[in-house]
Inverse folding.
């Protein structure tokens, strides 16, 4: 008896074990929260030490990127992210990992055509859409403020 | 000479023998249901070489050398090597057998490469084009991840249906003649491409099950045999989800494979 793709899709769904959504959300919340708390603590410390707020925020971001790079290179990050999911992917840690991981992986294809060329293979779309939307919103903002003036 | 029976099945007039075979695997496979069945397993899957691609070549070459040794046949005496892997342009098998001095036929069938190489080798032996041939395939988790998925250190989550590419290699030596107890390949059936529209790359079992069901159904119809005529009907790589779907699809087709079918994930049925 022939089976239609729609019928089969329903059947495949029925046999596939579901994701543990509740557990995954809780783990993501705790890990993501912990990363943000760590960043906030670092910022508070910097502010107390007399660093300007703008500079402090920049230092915090750089520290998280550096920490992620080290954890990615030492093979710790992916083991953590396996449990944390969006908890490590949403903060800047996710972006840093998405750049460092392909850079490491492509090392044996050469420095220029490997590491440099492949570095943005995952993060590339984020940069494209990030820059495009920034330019678009900038243009809208410009028109509105010009019109208002 | 081979003869076509039914619609798609080929019956071999001179069924070749599998005179020796070897299977090697990594650590995860050692801990799996087939762990005890491998000739050798390796805890260190880097094999002390600088790249994963080279590690896969080492694995393939070692499996082939072991199979040839078991067959008591120097590798150079083979008429043909038929092999494939999952890397671009089958680089693992090409480099693995580059120094062998044996003619090489690279094949790509992804999950089906072992069955494909055995099928083509059998046809060549049956028609007398070869008197000995080797069929082999290999894969390495770390090269497959890069080829098809994300870099190894990328922090992502796997869905419950995601499968894990084997780190391992298998090789079989086939000959036109062999011992009475050697297994023989009597029929070859190349399946037709069957796609029921599964687009989730992390659910390969569901994507492949319809093709497996069609191949098994067609073969049974062509040969006029029933599932219960066989001790085992084996599939590979369908996993738990794919195996369940295969049985369900065949049940709808009036074929009951329960108790006869086994897959890599459900070994020991």
């Amino acid at each position: 008896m022939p089976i239609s793709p729609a019928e089969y899709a329903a059947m495949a769904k029925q046999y596939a074990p579901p994701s543990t959504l509740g557990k995954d959300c809780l783990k993501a919340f705790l890990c993501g929260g912990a990363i943000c708390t760590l960043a906030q603590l670092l910022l508070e410390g910097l502010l107390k030490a007399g660093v300007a707020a703008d500079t402090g925020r920049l230092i915090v971001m750089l520290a998280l990127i550096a920490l992620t790079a080290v954890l990615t290179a030492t093979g710790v990050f992916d083991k953590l992210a396996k449990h944390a999911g969006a908890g490590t992917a949403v903060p800047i840690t996710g972006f840093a990992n998405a750049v460092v991981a392909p850079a490491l992986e492509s090392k044996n294809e050469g420095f220029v055509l490997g590491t440099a060329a492949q570095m943005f293979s995952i993060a590339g779309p984020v940069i494209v859409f990030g820059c495009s939307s920034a330019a678009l919103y900038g243009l809208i903002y410009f028109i509105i403020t010009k019109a208002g003036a | 000479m081979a003869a076509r029976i039914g619609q798609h099945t080929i019956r071999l007039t001179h069924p070749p023998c599998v005179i020796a075979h070897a299977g090697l695997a990594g650590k995860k496979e050692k801990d799996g249901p087939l762990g005890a069945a491998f000739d050798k397993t390796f805890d260190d899957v880097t094999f002390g070489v600088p790249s994963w691609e080279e590690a896969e070549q080492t694995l393939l070459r070692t499996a082939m050398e072991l199979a040839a040794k078991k067959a008591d046949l120097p590798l150079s005496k083979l008429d043909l090597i038929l092999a494939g892997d999952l890397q671009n342009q089958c680089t693992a098998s090409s480099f693995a057998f580059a120094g062998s001095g044996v003619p090489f036929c690279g094949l790509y069938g992804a999950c089906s490469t072992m069955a494909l190489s055995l099928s083509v080798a059998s046809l060549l032996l049956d028609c007398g084009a070869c008197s000995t041939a080797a069929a082999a395939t290999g894969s390495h988790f770390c090269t497959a991840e890069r080829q098809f998925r994300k870099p190894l250190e990328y922090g992502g989550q796997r869905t419950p249906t995601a499968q894990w590419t084997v780190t391992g290699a298998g090789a079989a030596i086939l000959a036109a003649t062999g011992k009475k107890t050697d297994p023989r390949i009597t029929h070859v059936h190349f399946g037709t491409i069957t796609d029921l529209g599964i687009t989730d790359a992390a659910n390969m079992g569901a994507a492949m099950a319809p093709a497996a069901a069609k191949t098994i159904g067609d073969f049974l119809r062509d040969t006029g045999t029933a599932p219960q005529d066989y001790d085992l009907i084996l599939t590979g790589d369908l996993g738990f989800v794919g195996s369940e779907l295969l049985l369900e699809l065949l049940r709808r087709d009036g074929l009951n494979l329960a108790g006869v079918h086994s897959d890599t994930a459900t070994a020991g049925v």
Notes: The first helix of chain A runs from residue 5 to 15. Chain A has a mean pLDDT of 94.
